[in-house]
């Protein structure tokens, strides 16, 4: 497995062969029926990590009621007014027994057994099951993927060790477990790419605008025309609640449109938002690959969210989001994502912002720029 692939999957974790079963192919077919909504009772499995709070707030804004289910370990002070059922997906679902909700959002399912257990327990007691998956489920990246593309498989389907290698195949299995328990017309599967915006603890997207704000010579991969794909966490949250409100079932990639955004635009938008100018030093794919191979840091990668256009991961940034957009997903301008995540970034403690979890440190970057200039002199 190449470095880029590892970076993507590992990043998704901390954030990020065909499935031929009848249940899965049914689930992949979209049946959208957007209609006026009544107030819903919504159970969120998770809800206090990165993406969950945005979903909670959007649901409450629309007049729905929300119950959380988690272990009470992460940010448990966030929603003191909401009912929180304490349990563990690993083996304690007792608090869910016999309870009924209009819909459940499963955003903490990484292990197939956990999804199978919650889906089986809730099947008769919830109207709609929405599972947050990932684009890491796809088997290959040398051609553009859409929702019908082949999914990754894993030799040992009983493994519960979630690693960079197993994350994608396990999420694909989680989808199958959900589809086995829930009728296709009551099941929604969302497959986000890199989720970005306020609260993103991976720093993968944040690295670029935060780096731009520092000015000076800046190392950038590939060239200005290289495509990138993200999804703003608020856009994902809006679409998630849209799916519940509109009884939208099926499987959807949630991404910005293919070809709609590039590294050059990320640089330009970041400079505009931060009112800073940098001197870009664009380096080619071969240089990026060599630098990444020699990189010893265990963070989310030196060139986060960027992917080379040659090799076996050449189409990671070309995932079709057409089906989700047809069903109502709206992507805000990325400049807005940059603005809001920087505003959030500035609220973090200094010891946190001093320890960027993705990208390069200043010394490493300066060293690479010097090497590039020497090589290309
Ligand atoms: N970040 C990305 O870019 C990205 C991209 C694609 C897909 N995704 C998907 O997005 C989803 C959520 O992402 P996130 O970053 O918001 O996750 P997160 O920050 O890890 O949040 C996890 C939530 O689940 C709860 N939880 C964790 N383990 C639990 C357990 N054993 N039992 C009960 N509750 C548990 C946590 O609360 P407690 O700790 O209190 O239990 C927390 O509320 C995942 O499904 C991931 O695959 C993320």
Write structural notes for this entry.
With 377 residues, this protein is α/β, with parallel strands linked by helices. The protein contains 13 helices and eleven strands. The strands form three sheets. Strands 3-2-1-4-5-6-10 form a seven-stranded parallel sheet, with helices on both faces. A two-stranded parallel sheet has the order 7-9. A two-stranded parallel ribbon has the order 8-11. The protein starts with a helix and ends with a helix. The model is unreliable at 1-36 (pLDDT under 50). Bound molecules: NADP nicotinamide-adenine-dinucleotide phosphate.
Cofactors, ions and other ligands in the entry? NADP nicotinamide-adenine-dinucleotide phosphate
Low-confidence stretches: 1-36
Spatial strand order of the main sheet: 3-2-1-4-5-6-10
Q: Mean pLDDT score, rounded?
A: 91
Distance between the termini: 33 Å
In helices, the fraction of residues equals 25-40%
The strand count comes to: 11
CATH superfamily name? NAD(P)-binding Rossmann-like Domain
The major sheet is characterized as:
7 strands, parallel
Discrete helix count: 13
Sequence of secondary-structure elements: HHEHEEEHEHEEHEEHEHEHHHHH
Q: Beta fraction of the residues?
A: 5-15%
